[in-house]
Amino acid sequence: MGWFWADTAPAAGVAPHPMPRGSAEPPPSCPMHRKAPAPPSRLPESASTPQGACPYVPPDTPSPASSTAPPPPKQGLLSRLNPLNNMPFDLSNKRADNQTQHLPLSREASTIPKGDGSLWEYPSPQQMYNAMLRKGYTDTPADAVESMVGVHNFLNEGAWAEIMGWERRFSRGVVEGYKICARGEENANQAIGIEDPFDTTTWNEKNIPPPKLLRFTGRPTEPTPKSQMLQWLGWAWPAKYESAPPFDRHDWFVQRCDEQGCQEVRYVIDYYEGDPEPTGEPVFFLDVRPAIDGPRSAAERAVRWGTDVWWRASGGVVREVRKAEQARKKREEEAAANGRHYN
C-alpha cells in the first residue's frame, strides 16, 4: 500500500491503529492491483522539489516520440514522474467535477524519514480519489476513500516498524545481530532496549544514524518466491499451510549506515489479509524481510529465523526458568548461612 508522497513534512508521528472494517477493505477496483512503471535512473536536473505521488496510478503511456524532433522539455513521461515513487509530481488536490461528497484536503505526516531527513507524507483523501479517477476507477465510492487512506497509512506504519526491527538487530553486522537474536524473538526487543515492537521512532544506537526510506515501488503482479512457495505448500498440505495469496507486494529501498559508511538495503513486503475480528475490524499480516541480494541479507534472514526456532525447539524458556530458580535458591541458602548465629 504505497501512496507515499514526496513533500517535505513537519516532524509528526502516526502510530499504527486498528481500523473499522466497513469500507476500509481495499476494494477490487483499488489501483494497488496495477503494476507501476520502473522508476527513472535519476531526477532531471531541471526538476523542482518533488511534490510526491502514488506509485499505483502511473500516467498513461504517451505515444512514441517523433524520430525527427526531440520532445519539448519536461513533456515526456519520465520528466513528469517522481523517481522516489514513480508517480506524477502534480496530482490535483481539487474537488472532482462530478464529486458529490466533500473529501478532506489535509495530508498526514508519517513517522518514516526520507533520504533528506524530512518525513514522508500520505496523500489526502481528495488526492487519492483524484488519482483513482484519473486512471479510470470511477466506480470507487467517495465515502470509502477516507477509510482506504486510513488503512493504507496503518499498513505503511506497520511495515516501517518491521523494518526498524530488522535494522535494530543487524545495523552493526551479522555477528552483533546473532547476539541479539540468540535468545529468540521474545527476548530480542529486551536486548536492544525496545519495549514496544511497533515503535517506529526510537533508535538507541548513538554512533549510527537511524535508517531512512529512500524510495519504493509497488509490484503487485510479481509474487515473491517465498509467497509462491507458501502457495505450493498450501496446495500440498492445505490443513497446515493453506492461505490466500498476498494482495500486494512492495519493494522498499532503505539506507543503512554504520561506522564504515552507508549502503542501500532492499526490503520485500508481502501484504496478507486475515479473517476479520469478531468486532468487524480487519486483520492484516505483513511479511517483511531483506531481499536476498547478497550473502549478508541471506545470513540475516537465516540468523533471525534459525535462532528463534532453536530457542523454542530446545526449550530456551525452560532453561531460563531453571536458571532463575537455581539463582533464587542459591541466594536463599547464602542468606540463611549468613544469618546463622552459634552460642
Global shape: elongated
Oligomer: single chain
Count of DSSP H/I helices: 9
Q: Which radius of gyration do the C-alpha atoms yield? A: 24 Å
Q: Give the SSE order as H and E letters.
A: HEEEEHHHHEHHEEEHH
Order of strands across the widest beta sheet?
5-6-7-8
Short description:
By secondary structure, the chain is an alpha+beta fold.
Task: Please provide a written account of the structure.
- By secondary structure, the chain is an alpha+beta fold.
- It has one domain.
- It has nine helices and eight strands.
- The chain has a four-stranded antiparallel sheet with strand order 5-6-7-8.
- Strand 6 (about 250-260) and strand 7 form a beta hairpin.
- The longest helix is centred in the middle third of the chain and has 26 residues, at about 145-170.
- The chain starts with about 80 loop residues before the first helix and ends in a 5-residue tail after the last helix.
- Lyase that catalyzes the covalent linking of the heme group to the cytochrome C apoprotein to produce the mature functional cytochrome.
